[in-house]
Design goal:
Blueprint lengths: L1 H11 L5 H13 L3 H14 L4 H13 L3 H17 L3 H19 L6
Helix pairs in contact: 1-2, 2-3, 2-4, 3-4, 4-5, 4-6, 5-6
Length: 112
Amino acid sequence: MGMVENLEKMLAKGRDDAMLRFGLGSAYFNDGKFPLAVTHLEACIAQDGSYSAAYKLLGKAYLKQGEPGKAISTFEAGMPIAEGQGDKQSRKEMQVFLGKAHKEMDNGQADL
């Protein structure tokens, strides 16, 4: 957990930017700590609404938390941003995960 600790120290010292928040969100996502990932990825997008990779990972974190409705809105917001930046891979991946989120909604797993 050395990377997370280092990033958290940077944040505690006053550095707060989209790249740092994405790094923390990604690290927490990889550690399976989805609520913490969501917190940092939301902060990333608040600071830089054009960070298409953050939309993709935030939507995936919402899916992991059983919140397909939030995932759907996140992917729908992120896809045109990725497309506008020419980030075809992120857009394509968000489209796939959007389909998965819709399936979860259809299976009755509604947001609480």
